[in-house]
Amino acid sequence: MTVSEFEGFFDQFVLEARRVMFLKMADYTREERATGNFERAAEDLGLEPLQVWGVYFHKHVQAAQAFARTRDATSEPIRGRFVDLLNYAVLGAALAKEVTT
User: How close are the terminal C-alpha atoms of the chain, in Å?
Assistant: First the structure.
């Protein structure tokens, strides 16, 4: 992939990730909090929201690693897993910002 091709790919990928983020966020938010899903699970499990995020993020990392090994993504297209990884990275950064400010 050339740099020019990558630039177009990148732009489309980020747009897709943004669309997915806000589409799914409607199902997971709590009282207008973007990180509400992690906060609810943390309360239920006696953990910190960032710890819950780490478990969720790790699940997507494992799926990407499995694809790297096998080139197989049976349950959902691998592109969706990478979109999720990008979105979880952003959510993790948001949670980290909250605990460091």
Answer: 40
